[in-house]
């Protein structure tokens, strides 16, 4: 084990082109912890926010960012592959933008697959969030679910998971050019997220939806709630437009009998057996993973964050360290 490693370490807010690689000590491993030799990681919006210095109080400088990683578990069975995400990674503890990272053993999820690191690096955070939110909905075969924000990485993954469950999936985008992408990953109906959405959903499901995932905005919740039948559930997962709260919110604006919940879970919501099932599904093509681009080496993180911010290509931006 070397004494130092290559990493991107932030000491304050920087521009994308200032995400430079430096040498830092390899992190120590304490009791109940696992060191991971990072082979790949996805680049996420929250890391862009952290780089700008706009994160919440759980983030502090100096910090190695990166809320997820996949790699080899050092000190585990030889060749054991592990995934990790959340649990303060890249926010309250140093994260995945490095050759090595150390996490709680409970947050190191073992897996076995022949899939490439370029695919595996895309999975931890978006798969955990999509799986956790669909599970929170209690979605079942034969039900109707709306996924607002369908072309986000979590949205695309949730569409594919819901499709595999046997649900009828309605998914939204603000860009009609991305309708085909939504149907390719499993949406039965691709809908434009504008002022025609309410009528479109009611025309398709006049009795009301069984479930909905809200990824666009907290302020979109009243409209989404109005489309769900009594006994159905809406799960708030994220706010792609940055609107995380509803001004002057009244609980009485929730339609009678409709359930409103949220999902903000962690690694323990994606146990090893669930991850294994998803990996098999990706291998056989029944679960679709959309990757926008891959980048080789930590030196390309700046480009990856720039491309993510541009929003030109849907899907996950993945940095691969294996072989670099």
UniProtKB/TrEMBL annotation:
InterPro entries: ADH-like_C (IPR013149), ADH-like_N (IPR013154), ER (IPR020843), GroES-like_sf (IPR011032), NAD(P)-bd_dom_sf (IPR036291), Zinc-ADH_QOR/CCCR (IPR051603). SUPFAM superfamilies: GroES-like, NAD(P)-binding Rossmann-fold domains. Residues 14-319 form the Enoyl reductase (ER) domain. This is Zinc-binding dehydrogenase. Signal peptide: none annotated. SMART domains: PKS_ER. Keywords: NADP.
């Amino acid at each position: 084990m070397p004494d130092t490693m290559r990493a991107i370490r932030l000491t304050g807010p920087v521009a994308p082109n200032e995400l430079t690689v430096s040498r830092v000590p390899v992190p120590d491993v304490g009791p109940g912890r696992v060191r991971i030799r990072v082979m790949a990681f996805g680049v996420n919006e929250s890391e862009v926010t952290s780089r700008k210095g706009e994160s919440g109080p759980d983030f502090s400088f100096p910090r190695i960012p990166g809320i997820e990683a996949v790699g080899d578990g050092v000190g585990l069975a030889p060749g054991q592959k592990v995934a990790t995400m959340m649990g303060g990674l890249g926010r309250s503890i140093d994260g995945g933008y490095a050759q090595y990272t150390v996490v709680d053993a409970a947050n190191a999820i073992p897996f076995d697959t022949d899939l490439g690191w370029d695919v595996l690096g895309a999975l931890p955070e978006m798969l955990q969030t999509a799986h956790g939110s669909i599970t929170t909905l209690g979605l079942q075969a034969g039900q109707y679910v709306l996924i607002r924000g369908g072309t986000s990485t979590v949205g695309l993954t949730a569409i594919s998971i819901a499709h595999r469950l046997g649900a009828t999936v309605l998914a939204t985008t603000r860009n009609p050019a991305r309708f085909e992408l939504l149907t390719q990953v499993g949406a039965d109906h691709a809908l434009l997220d504008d002022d025609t959405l309410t009528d479109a959903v009611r025309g398709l499901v006049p009795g009301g939806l069984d479930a909905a995932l809200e990824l666009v905005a907290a302020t979109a919740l009243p409209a989404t709630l109005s489309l769900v039948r009594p006994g159905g559930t809406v799960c708030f997962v994220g706010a792609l437009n940055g609107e995380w709260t509803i001004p002057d919110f009244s609980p009485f604006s929730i339609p009678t009998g409709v359930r409103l919940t949220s999902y903000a879970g962690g690694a323990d919501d994606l146990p090893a057996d669930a991850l294994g099932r998803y990996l098999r599904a990706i291998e056989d093509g029944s679960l679709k993973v959309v990757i926008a681009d891959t980048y080789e080496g930590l030196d390309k993180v700046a480009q990856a964050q720039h491309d993510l911010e541009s929003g030109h290509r849907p899907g996950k931006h993945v940095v691969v360290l294996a072989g670099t």
